[in-house]
Amino acid sequence: MDALLIERETILAAFWMTIRLTAVSALGSLVLGTLLTAMRVAPLASLRAAASCYVSVARNTPLTLVLLFTGLGVGANLGVELSDDLATNNFWLACIGLTAYTSAFVCEALRSGLNTVPVGQAEAARSLGLGFVKTLGLITLPQAFRAVVAPLGSILIALTKNTTIALVVGVSEASVRMREMIETYGDQVIEIFLGFAAGFLLLCLPMGLLFGWLSRRMAVAR
Amino acid sequence: MTYANLYERPGPRGVRRNRALAALVALALLALAYVVYLRFDARDQWAAEKWTPLLRGDVWATFILPGLAGTLGAAVTGVILAGLFGLVFATARLSEHRWIRMPAAAVVEFFRSVPLLLLIFFAFFGSYMLIGVNISAFAAVVFGLTLYNGSVIAEIVRAGVLSLPRGQSEAAYATGMRKGQVMRLVLLPQAFRAMMPAIVSQFVVLLKDSALGLIVGYDELVDRGLNGIAANFSNVIPAAILIAAIFIVINLSLDRLAHRLGAR
Amino acid sequence: MFGRSLHVTFTVIALAAAATACGGQDDYASVVDKAKTAKKLVIGVKADQPGLGLRTPDGTFTGFDIEVARYVAKQLGVEAKDITFKETVSANREAFIEQGQVDMVVATYSITDARKQKVSFAGPYFVAGQDLLIRAGDTALTGPEALNGKKLCSVAGSTPAQKVKSEYAKEVQLQEERTYSACVDRVLGGQLDAITTDDVILAGYAAQHGGELKVVGKPFSTEKYGIGLKKDDKAGRDAVNDALEKMFADGSWTKALQASVGASGFALPQAPKLERY
After folding, report:
1. Of B26, B113, B211, the CB nearest to A62
2. Chain C residues touching residue A85 (CB < 8 angstroms)
3. Does pTM top 0.95 for this prediction?
């Protein structure tokens, strides 16, 4: 247990990084995912094609490679510099990569949510004279969101765990620290692993419960 | 397309306007792509000497194909073991004995919450303390893939069994089947069929996750292919684009398979 | 029907498990015995370090480590064609030796007391030092002290970068990458200023990018590269040391080093003194 006690501040800092990465990327993915969903059902063929192409690519590429593209492609080759400070820059690049990947899954979930909304809802909205943006934004999307609360919860949990792959762009979060600690305290591998696993259980289990409760509460009664 | 009803069918003027807008959007997207192209060009990323190696037969034979074999090897082993793990734990969680149900639930919830990367690290570095031997990178990767994806599949299968009408098991009991037979011969096959698309998409996740093997030096597509090629020709970006394309092609075919299975 | 397919799956897994279990190597007391009786060796090397150990597209390996491994193997009585090179990464070198997956490791393997607990070392066959790799036109960066305010790249899981920060330049910003190729890309692109690791590894990259990169040439640590063997293989250690002695003496050592990293303009050192134990 010594290792965990001695290094508790490093571990807490690592998990704080995990939480920040998760929070920022979750927000980003929700926004981008909603936008992508809107694009996929838009009246313009080119928007639909672009969104569905993006989703297929992002969903089917390993996250390791997505993050490598954001680090080397966006960061180094496009010359996007979000901060003079390397650590901050890497943090934002990691958020961009995680958002790019996760938003594809959010889009898929929302689209299947749209399918659960009865046709009559949109037809009623149109008969009131609402256009595409209002029909989608005020009538169908809110209902779609309520239908997919549980899948969105699973996506959030997956995102929390996926932040460990941010080590690819050089962000020091839980997996980097766990590895370093294993190298330093080689005789306490099991305690170290259980310690980090407990951290993720503490983050993920409440999320699962919360979203389970939310999905029951917010379900659209039909 | 059920959501095509989100807007009125445009009239002749609307059609013209939509076409113009669509063309405008397409142009904007192309312009964006062109800017990216120019920026990459400024860094010589399109230089022929970075791309031509990717077409060479020996590069494929030495780096890409062995890497692909490694990826598929870990993925296929992982799929088989994860499927079995899922089957066993789904059954255990459906057991009517509390002392079977509870530990099974704990195991499944635990492995669903721990990041795969940590599982692989732990298996690789901790195996010596745990069982007295150092396991290979392959074993560590398969260990992680099995436990994580197996737990997810267990949940999928359990949901599948629970979604079956009660009449199925009642009818089976009525014909004199025993508990195990009902589960094995009646419920699980139907649950598997109903959940096939979900299970196949989990296998897509598993295949992508096998790329994490690179952190313990397992010879898969990213480690052997990308890093091997980049070390020789210093073309990280072109090699990464090729490797990503290979993953996308494989996963899209799996996706199509899932759809076809779902349709049946 | 379902039951039968389950049986088949179980059988397949059992067979696969058995096959892997039987895949282990035969046990020899010493690498010398294996070389003598089997006339074959499996040698662990790096596969992604130009100049030291690099897998080339034709499937063979090149580099200084490879030349050393071939020479030593030849002295033990094994021809080049009977050597199987196996890729090792920093994380699995000890494990590979302990499990007998490789007979020896020649992979920029620094001799340390911690590692001596698990494996034994012949050599050193090269003494490297931590150094910096910078753009060829960069004249301001003359050593680790000049790194304040600069951006330094290292490979994840390695401690050298931390050492630069704590001992030489408190204001340096560290970037961890997964591979040196990625570091090289970013230094050439201008986002980062320097890469740090052992000078001879850096020289390999400088040689690969003729004229674009240079090694600063002021090493600030010593890393003794040894050949890793099974923990108690004294006979093997002595035999490998004899082979190295001969390699230093007959000029092959200098020739191999010159051929591997000479193009970088890196000042080639003298052969080191062996540390027999």
Report:
1. B211
2. 173
3. no
